[in-house]
Structures are given as structure tokens and as C-alpha cells.
Design goal:
This protein is of the alpha+beta class. The protein is about 50% helix and about 15% strand.
Length: about 120
């Protein structure tokens, strides 16, 4: 699986773009789980993604999205009774992680200040 966040969210599985998730929140949930690869309590995710809904409705919404994600992505998304996690044991690439690693490597070099300024300029910060 490849998840690209820089330049817009794109998700590919076995080289084929995945574009038919139930909603944009499905994309957001997958990205959140991939960027934070540890088990998350269902209640926490429900509150995070549906803050205006009561807990019962928010958990139901989460279940619908998890069913969709698991149907399309298999065991990349691990949904247990009380927790949900991204299966980082499966092969995946996340461009934001690669970008962060490149920045860390660049900062360790003598010209790190120049590289940092260049990246900051590109990102508009």
C-alpha cells in the first residue's frame, strides 16, 4: 500500500488507486491510523471524527467506515472489539514519513540550515 499526503491524498493498493471509500472521513481515518500506528480505543476515534454526534451514533458511523476500509484494504486495518489500528506489519509507504526521514538526514549534514530554509520556503512557512 502507498499513501501519499503531500500534494493531496492518494491511496494505492498493489499499484492501483483506491478511490471509492464510503466518505472523506474514511480517507481521514486511514491516514490518521497510518500516521499513528498503534491501537486506538474506538470511543476515542468516534469522538475525534464525529464530535457533534452522541457516542452511540459516532460509534455506528465508525463501524460503517471500518467495514468499508476492511472490505477494500483487508487486514491493513485491524478492528478489534475495543480498539482499531493500522497494521504496520504489512508493507506500506507513507510519503510524509519518507519526507520526514529525508529532512532528518539533511539536518545532520553541514548544509542543513540552507536545506531547512529551502524546505520552509517550499512549504510556505
Amino acid at each position: 500500500m502507498t499513501i501519499s499526503l503531500l500534494g493531496g491524498v492518494t491511496i494505492a493498493l498493489d499499484g492501483t488507486a483506491v478511490s471509492s471509500f464510503v466518505s472523506r472521513k474514511a480517507d481521514a481515518l486511514l491516514v490518521y491510523l497510518a500516521c499513528n500506528p498503534r491501537p486506538h480505543p474506538r470511543e476515542t476515534l468516534a469522538t475525534l471524527f464525529w464530535p457533534d454526534n452522541d457516542q452511540t451514533r459516532a460509534l455506528a458511523n465508525l463501524s460503517v467506515i471500518l467495514t468499508s476500509l476492511r472490505k477494500q484494504l483487508g487486514d491493513y486495518v485491524q478492528a478489534e472489539r475495543h480498539t482499531v489500528a493500522f497494521n504496520s506489519e504489512r508493507p506500506f509507504e507513507l510519503d510524509a514519513n519518507q519526507f520526514e526521514q529525508a529532512i532528518e538526514q539533511a539536518q545532520a549534514r553541514p548544509q542543513a540550515g540552507k536545506i531547512t530554509r529551502t524546505v520552509a520556503t517550499q512549504l510556505g512557512t
